[in-house]
Amino acid sequence: MKIDFSYEKKKIDYISGFIFKGKHYRCNYVRFKTLYKNPVEGTETVELYNFEPKDKILASAMILHGLGSANIKYMIWLARRLASVGINTTILILPGNYTRVDKNSVSGRSYLWPDLNLMYRFWEHGVVDTLSTLDLLKQEGYWKKENILIGYCLGGMIGTIVEALNPQLKHFLLMTTGGNLPEVLYNSPATKFVRNLIKKGFKDEYDLHNPEKIYQIYNEQFSIVKNMSLNEIIFSDKIHPLFRVDPLSYAHLIDPSKVMFVEAMFDKTLSKKSRKSLYKEFKGAKYYLIPSGHVTWLPFEFLLAKNVISKLNIEDLRLRSRLYGFDEIDEALDEGVNKR
Q: Which of the residues 42, 119, 220, 294 has an alpha carbon 20 to 30 A from that of 101?
């Protein structure tokens, strides 16, 4: 079974409109027809939120959110803060999530549905949409030399494949993510539906209904996969096709000096094995262990924003002070006084 991350590179025609603004940024809602060749109904239009600084753009960030929809509001907070200090920040809504849920499905589910034909379509689509969004940002002059991709959970998995396919990032921040898809499929609260399907007698041609066999295959084949070239991973018929959508397979192809890996100590969504196995493949990457859970770190994004600002060399103290949002509080108070 082959996978296809290719798409036709071309000038991207899009429609956009500003939907809200802050004192130092404005948010543009952008849509364009996906360049992925085989989208599922409901996912045909790429949607992204571009937070553009009103002053000079000093750096660029792209945020790839996690599985589902609830985490996106936190990503919007992060994007607003980064844009306020001069970092053009783009949130891509991944196909199958939030406002791009596929027909008759649930947000995020199709990436882990135990049918490789369906899984391939969504992993391919997520990768193509990310790459083409980067193309659009470059086309319009929003992607700068100083840049970072921030991938949370699913976003980190998609981002790993993207960077392995087309290395172009200055910095790559992986936030509470992991690899080893058997661990995700069979040992995560988020994939209880997979285990329920198996209990009800679900079967497929690639043995995803047989956890013991898939674990055995991974134990036997991963030592081969981790030494493969990109073309071998994509085209070899000597490995199980599940490897082709597993970020674990691609991590060794990425320059670890650009990677920051943040692991949540109390993460219950992704098993310790899933998290550790992915980090292990980024030999030499910077590693941070935070005392939080998979989701409970989100309200403390302020600390993450500070790290990103430093990493992108935003040194102007006047700009950095905007991270605290005091200027927006003052602006809101002023508006309230003027309305009286």
A: 294
CB atoms inside a 10 Å sphere around CB 306? 13
Find the CATH number of the domain harbouring 273: 3.40.50.1820
Tell me the one-letter amino acid at 127.
V
Residue 336 above 80 pLDDT? no
Q: Are 66 and 264 in contact (CB under 8 A)?
A: no
CA 310 to chain CA centroid, Å, is 21
- Could you tell me if residue 5 is inside a domain? no
Q: Is there a domain that residue 12 lies in?
A: no
d(CA 241, CA 1): 6
Lowest mean pLDDT among 90-94, 195-199, 262-266, 296-300: 296-300
| Max CA separation in the chain (angstroms) | 72
Q: Domain total for the chain? A: 1
Per-residue pLDDT band for 328 (boundaries 50, 70, 90) equals low
Helices (H), 38-180: 72-84, 116-139, 154-165
**DSSP letter (8 states) at residue 222:** H
Res. 111: pLDDT tops 70: yes
332 inside domain: no
Alpha carbon 262 to its chain centroid, in Å, reads 14
Residue 319 lies in a domain: no
Look at residue 196 in the predicted model and tell me its pLDDT: 96
